[in-house]
Amino acid sequence: MNRNHFFVLGGLFIFLCVGLLIQVDRQSIREALSEAFPLTDTLWTIFQIDESIEDRRVESNESNDIIMEEIMEEIRREKFSSWVPSGFKYFKNDIAYKWSDHSSFTCDYGSCQQIEIVSKNGCKSLYAEVNKLDSENNNIGYTNASTTNLAAGQKALLMFRSTGDFKSFTLSEISCY
Fold first, then answer.
1. Global pTM?
2. Which of 3.40.50, 2.60.40, 3.20.14, 3.90.1150 would CATH assign to domain 89-176?
3. Number of Cβ atoms within 10 Å of the Cβ of 94
4. H helix or E strand, kind and range, residue 160
5. Quick one: what percent of the chain has pLDDT higher than 90?
6. Domain spans of the chain?
7. Is 66 or 3 the better-scoring residue by pLDDT?
8. Gap between the Cα atoms of 149 and 143, Å rounded
9. Which residues contact 97 (CB under 8 A, 6 or more apart)?
10. Mean pLDDT, all residues of the chain
11. Per-residue pLDDT tens for 101-124?
């Protein structure tokens, strides 16, 4: 971070504090800051976390770590996964996935597993990789699958096929470029 970033962050902090002291509507502060500075959402999230910790500390006897964990989970759910289709799990970088039910696909050789992937913004190139695990959960290899030109919100079906002696697949990577 350079010196200018510290001045901007310091100014935002002072602006937030002054706004709270004179009891200005918080939503108005957030909207004004959001227009002026792209980092405002991050700063506002930090402010909300701090405020939530104080509120919950008064309401319960839970430790700060437990309270912080609950708050972060709520924020992740609200901020990052509001667009995620039902039944899908948020992965990262605006990507969600779910494993297909075995009755929804056929396996022409070896062992197969199909995954369904949705990108919030679409991908020119979509790549996914799974590790192969033995009966003791040791990583004994990997396999991958890819596709191209996935539209925003469109579902991609990727099939992982492999032969050999292993028990299961576990998701290790999804990349969307």
1. 0.57
2. 2.60.40
3. 18
4. strand 155-162
5. 46
6. 3-80, 89-176
7. 66
8. 21
9. 88, 89, 91, 115, 116, 117, 118, 128, 171, 174
10. 77
11. 999 999 988 889 999 999 999 999
Q: Which residues of 21-46 are buried (b: 16+ CB within 10 A; e: fewer)?
A: eeeeeeeebbeebeeebeebeebbee
Query: Which tokens belong to 38?
Result: 């792209």
Element of type H or E holding 4: helix 3-21
How far apart, in Å, are the Cα atoms of 21 and each of 17, 24, 26? 6, 8, 11
Q: In the structure encoding, which two tokens stand for residue 73, read together?
A: 């989970």
Confidence at residue 22, expressed as pLDDT on a 0 to 100 scale: 46
Say which residue, 133 or 5, is predicted with more confidence: 133
Dihedral of CA atoms 142, 145, 150, 156 in degrees, nearest 10, equals -90
108: Cα within 13 Å, side-chain hemisphere:
2
Tokens 């009891």 label which residue? 23
